[in-house]
Write a structure and sequence with these properties.
Blueprint (H helix, E strand, L loop, with lengths): L4 E5 L3 H12 L3 E6 L18 H6 L2 E4 L1 H8 L4 H6 L6 E5 L5 E6 H8 L4 E4 H9 L7 E3 L2 E6 L10 E6 L5 E6 L1 E4 L6 H6 L7 E13 L8 E5 L2 E7 L4 E8 L11 H9 L6 H7 L6 E7 L8 E2 L2 E3 L14 H15 L6 H30 L4 H17 L3 H4 L32
Parallel strand pairs: 1-2, 1-11, 2-7, 4-13, 11-18
Antiparallel strand pairs: 3-6, 4-5, 8-9, 9-10, 12-15, 12-16, 13-14, 14-15, 17-18
């Protein structure tokens, strides 16, 4: 039987996960990434809106138990957990340092079967890329969908046009195209030209990785008027920091984004000022946040499947953007079994993924709106509610992840062998 071919447009985390998963399913896979080299923050068609130095430093990614289990089906769950920082609890604070709530990771393990971890995005990208067959990755390749094809068994293949080749343009055909080309996906626009574009979520986000100034702080998220700051340790002694602020879209600081962070957050509690003092200004990423304006008609058309931010961009407030892309990839590959009809597989992919991901989009959006409150009375009420909830219902913050973090991949995996051992408190390979 002829080996089926797949083209993945976009070499971000979702695209690479899909490529690895499809390769394990027996597909011949090629990843087309427009960046000259795999870049954890500019891959997948959404370049970071800051200096190249910032993109090279990258940022962190939260991996909830659902994403860890999905990666476990590819045999890399243990490797992912090995590069994550482990800590006992996460805190919610006010800018002056007052503790509002504390979430114990042991409670998350009991509720969801594993902890929430933060890894360096670049390490996850490298881990996935290393699982691809030699020659499967084509960096520096700008791809455009020329024809989505027809998914029926005797239907025409999908066609992808490659720009910038020596003879003007190269055209590739494939049995399947996976579009993981980011928030402003050109493939999505080609498939559904009348569908509303993602809309601005009402806030912008900064991210950076910096040396830890000291160890006198816990992982935390701090909520202030119109903005949030988060500090998360990484396994190598560095810190992943992120911040958001309710500002008009498209703004950029004339004197640099580190200077903008100092103006907005420089007086907040430790370790915020210390981190801003040590971070390289070129290491600060800034991106406006976009969210899906409406559910798309489908997650596929013809022989093309949309994945991750290309089809369900979401606010970062549940830490599920990357996690849902990983889920998409594993479910798509599971359905696209060697003996499965592609039309039926893609229909099932839309049926399974569209309602789930759009629910996560809306839930993240609701929390994101809470972070944009600015008035003193509103912020005081929000803080009082958070503190009261922590006293009366300590697990309420975890309940916001019910139906999300407890997700499990389809029964039956295609990971070949285990990679090390795991404790009973961690999601295991083959789950």
């Amino acid at each position: 039987m002829r080996q089926r071919t797949a083209l993945v447009i976009g070499g971000g985390i979702g695209g690479l996960t899909a490529a690895v998963a499809l390769d394990r399913r027996g597909w011949s896979v090629t990843v087309l990434e427009r960046a000259a080299a795999l870049d954890p923050d500019s891959a997948s068609g959404d370049p970071a809106q800051s200096a190249g130095g910032a993109r090279r430093n990258g940022a962190g990614i939260g991996l909830a138990p659902n994403a860890q289990r999905a990666l476990g089906t590819l045999g890399v769950g243990d490797a992912v957990r090995a590069m994550a920082a482990w800590y006992d609890a996460g805190e919610f604070r006010l800018p002056g340092g007052r503790l509002l709530a504390r979430t114990e990771h042991a409670a998350a393990v009991r509720r969801f079967g594993g902890p929430f971890v933060v890894a360096h995005r670049a390490e996850l990208v490298a881990l996935l890329a290393a699982r691809l067959p030699e020659g499967a990755l084509r960096p520096g390749t700008t791809a455009a969908l020329a024809d989505p094809g027809e998914a029926r068994a005797d239907g025409r293949p999908a066609r992808v046009r490659i720009a910038g080749t020596a003879d003007g343009a190269e055209e590739l055909t494939a049995d399947l195209v996976v579009a993981a080309d980011g928030i402003h996906s050109a493939v999505r626009r080609a498939l559904f030209p009348g569908h509303p574009a993602p809309r601005y979520a009402g806030f912008t986000a900064w991210r950076f990785v910096a040396p830890a100034p000291d160890r006198r702080f816990a992982a935390h998220e701090t909520w202030g008027p119109g903005g949030v700051w988060g500090t998360q340790p990484l396994h190598d002694g560095r810190v992943y920091a992120y911040a958001t602020a309710a500002v008009p879209p498209g703004e950029r600081a004339a004197d640099g984004e580190r200077a903008e962070l100092l103006r907005r957050f420089g007086s907040w509690h430790h370790p915020v000022p210390a981190l801003l003092a040590v971070v390289d200004p070129a290491a600060v990423l800034r991106n406006d946040v976009y969210t899906a304006a409406a559910a798309p008609p489908a997650f596929h058309r013809g022989r093309v499947a949309l994945l991750g931010d290309a089809v369900h961009p979401m606010a970062p407030n549940l830490g599920q953007g990357g996690c849902q892309a990983i889920e998409d990839a594993v479910v798509l590959a599971h359905l696209a079994a060697p003996d499965a009809g592609l039309a039926a597989a893609l229909t099932a992919y839309t049926r399974q993924r569209l309602p789930r991901t759009m629910d996560v989009v809306r839930r993240a959006e609701r929390i994101g709106r809470l972070t944009t409150w600015r008035s003193r009375p509103a912020c005081a009420l929000r803080a009082a509610l958070m503190a009261a909830t922590a006293r009366l219902a300590p697990d309420l913050a975890l309940r916001s992840m019910d139906g999300i973090a407890d997700w499990r991949p389809p029964a039956g995996t295609y990971a070949s062998g285990t990679q090390g051992t795991t404790s009973a408190a961690q999601p295991k390979e083959h789950e």
